[in-house]
Amino acid sequence: MFVVALLGSGCASLPPGSDFPKAPSKALTSPEGTQLGRQLGVLTSKHPGLSGFRLLPVGLDSFQLRMDMVRTAERTLDLQYFLVECDDTGQLLLEAILQAADRGVRTRILLDDSGSFGRDAQISMLAGHPNIELRLFNPSAYRGQLPLLHTVDVVLNAYRLNYRMHNKLFVVDNAIGIVGGRNIGDEYFQAAAKFEFGDYDVTAAGPIVKNLSDSFDAYWNSPMAIPIDALTGGKPSPEALHGYRDTLAAHRARMEGTPYLRPLPADQSLSAMISGKAPLIWARAEVIYDSPEKLKVENDEQPGYLLRSRLREVAVETRSELIIVSPYLVPGPGGMRFFEKLQERQVRVRVLTNSLASTDMPIVHSRYQTFRVPMLESGVELYEVRPVLGQPVVGGHELKSPSSGRYALHAKVFVFDRQRIFIGSMNLDPRSLRVNTEVGLIIESPELAGQVADRFAEIAQPANSYVLAVDGPDGGGIRGLVWRTMENGKPAEYRQEPATAFGRRLQVDALSLLPLDELL
Known about the structure:
By secondary structure, this protein is an alpha+beta fold. It contains 19 helices and 22 strands. The two termini are 34 Å apart.
């Protein structure tokens, strides 16, 4: 019967549970009624027409600020993520959210369902709280724990389930928010032993937060957002929620003494930020995001928003320099034409992405590698992050935690003429551009642009990245490439993918034969 049900849903455009009754809801309409809203309102009044921002390049800081924000919440919490892990940092944050709900904070959590297999049983316990509502974006029909049946579901519903919500958004009391590239999990917050994602978030305060909340509300009330109750047969029992509380409390006890339960330094804390002691950068900005039913917008079946359209308008206006940071990079023919047009106008283009040795997605690298020589020949300056940074400390600050392992890039940020930036969830690849939904901010701030450009320079230097060049026709290099870097303080060159075993290179070459261009 289960397989028959899956077959029956295979051609459906809406996910299972879409007919389940759900009450629409909106963000807090009067944030000035909260302490956060009042204090930030005082700051905002001194900067009419502007919003306040602070970059969060350090994973630990980004986590501690989220914890600080949850503890400060009075009325509402809105979280929208592609992925929430039930690991050390994930459980600490989930317990803080549960405690906020105990204080009466209305909490809405919207998660993409692609990464939920094996996690639902834990996170869904939160839905047993009367102040927490959990919805899944475009969920699978199968909710059990058998991998085979999960695979059957994915295969039979491949067209629908390929469409994912990649947004990352965190809003408290509709007064302050965080948007950027980080999901919730140890790898994003410098807490994983095996590897660490280098990433960016930005704190946002002022009038722009209402626009962020508008994007959240659009997804929350979309037909694609399904209440967890519709998929699990009802809310968890009070006993189940109580058991989950005990699990989270025991985990927190084990985490005592770690940096993840310490507050931010006084001069970087949320209270310092909202009191003006840790000044925000005030600037004009706009929220750009894809409509929740992006595929229908793509197919002209309904009106809506496409993030890439607005981002392209901004990129076309670039006059002298474009900096791109994208961990997964597949420009495609359209991107190549865009790079060539920029070169014709003598715009300097610099791109930072993962090397084969650092990437966590070799299947994306299999397509990216075919564009390297054309990009270089079009004038793009191309840098690939090393898995081990040769200079992890630059100018007195750490680019990477000394306790974590391999380094992998995960940030998604653009810098236009060092005057404005885009920071958000979108990679420069076909999946982000045309399949997944994304969200981000365009901020008009030379100061923020300078901060991102400086960090780009720190990571792109030869001690931390491979600087790519086209090898001469007689150089004997694979695909005409040479990788230049620094090893033990001395210049070094490679003529095949550095720091990778033959098996990994063979795997990537084999993956390049698969017809997956529009899915990467």
